[in-house]
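User: I've been trying to design a sequence by hand for this structure and keep getting stuck. Would you show me what you'd pick, starting by listing the structure so we're on the same page?

Assistant: Good idea, let's start from the same input. This is the structure you sent:
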């Protein structure tokens, strides 16, 4: 681990001043400290923001949900409003990491976590995300766990977060505070596809701080859930996952929100699946037909071709679980 300075702040003004000077924000530290220990990350200054008042979960005036950036994953998963309004979020959080990590890690930190690509974490390997212009060892290496959607010739790493898939499906908004004031960014625009600049992963400006994630109000009744497929049942990242939310009234699907994880360089929204669900009646044939569109545009690599069919099966299964007609 390389030397660094450490500052603990007590209000947002102090935090923004430190961030403007190049300090890296840290709360639970469950990802950043690991990367520093492996010398993948080498920040010169850490700014501890755990003392900021960003720990509230509240219902918005319009009936949505606002989750403070410093709410612990375990706290968010157990919160009655989260479990009642958006069980897909609770399920995604409970299927993430270990209990110990969920007790430490924050919502803001979770969506900011960096890829678990082994080449990114191996400082001897070529990685454009870690060292722009050095190449991508995963393209010709062992790429079983890598992305099939949203990839580029410079990066094929997946985004590891489970709850980010739920946020993408529900069309959440990220609230930011920076030197230029407050702004809001749609969640699907906040996490960036690699393109030619895989080292730039979020739409953050210098010194900006995540203050909350807001989920919009959706029609009721709303059924939702999260399915995660992995090599083992405990503490493992997704091979594929699916976050589904459906509003069914009068036997017809009036609104559908679907996103996939474990397969994209960012949590992957599935608009083609959503569009083909709306206006239809739930049925086994419908689930199978729309799930076949889940992997549209996929670019599988040598070792992860199985993810195409696995993604389709994962989406179909979760549609049956949430929408009925099992």
């Amino acid at each position: 681990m390389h030397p660094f300075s450490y500052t603990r702040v007590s209000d947002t003004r102090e935090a923004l001043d430190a961030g403007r000077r190049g300090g890296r924000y840290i709360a639970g530290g469950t990802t950043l400290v690991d990367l520093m220990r492996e010398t993948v990350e080498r920040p010169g200054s850490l700014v501890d923001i755990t003392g900021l008042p960003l720990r509230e979960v509240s219902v918005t005036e319009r009936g949505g949900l606002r989750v403070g950036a410093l709410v612990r994953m375990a706290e968010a998963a157990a919160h009655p409003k989260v479990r009642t309004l958006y069980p897909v979020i609770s399920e995604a959080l409970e299927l993430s990491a270990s209990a110990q990590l969920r007790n430490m890690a924050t919502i803001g930190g979770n969506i900011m976590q960096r890829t678990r690509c082994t080449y990114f974490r191996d400082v001897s390997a070529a990685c454009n995300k870690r060292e722009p212009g050095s190449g991508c060892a995963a393209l010709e290496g062992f790429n079983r766990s890598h992305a099939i959607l949203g990839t580029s010739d410079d990066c094929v790493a997946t985004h590891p977060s489970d709850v980010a898939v739920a946020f993408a499906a529900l069309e959440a908004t990220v609230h930011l505070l920076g030197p230029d004031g407050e702004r809001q960014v749609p969640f699907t625009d906040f996490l960036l596809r690699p393109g030619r600049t895989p080292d730039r992963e979020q739409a953050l400006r210098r010194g900006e701080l995540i203050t909350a994630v807001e989920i919009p109000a959706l029609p009721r009744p709303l059924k939702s859930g999260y399915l995660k497929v992995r090599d083992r049942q405990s503490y493992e990242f997704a091979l594929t996952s699916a976050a589904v939310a459906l509003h069914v009234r009068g036997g017809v699907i009036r609104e559908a929100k679907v996103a996939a994880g474990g397969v994209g360089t960012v949590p992957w929204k599935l608009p083609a699946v959503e569009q083909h669900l709306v206006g239809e009646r739930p049925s086994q044939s419908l689930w199978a037909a729309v799930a076949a569109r889940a992997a549209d545009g996929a670019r599988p690599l040598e070792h992860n071709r199985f993810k195409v069919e696995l993604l389709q099966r994962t989406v179909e299964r979760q549609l049956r679980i949430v929408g009925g007609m099992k």
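That's my pick for every position. To get oriented when you compare it with your attempt: The first strand starts at residue 5 and ends at 8. The chain has a mean pLDDT of 96.
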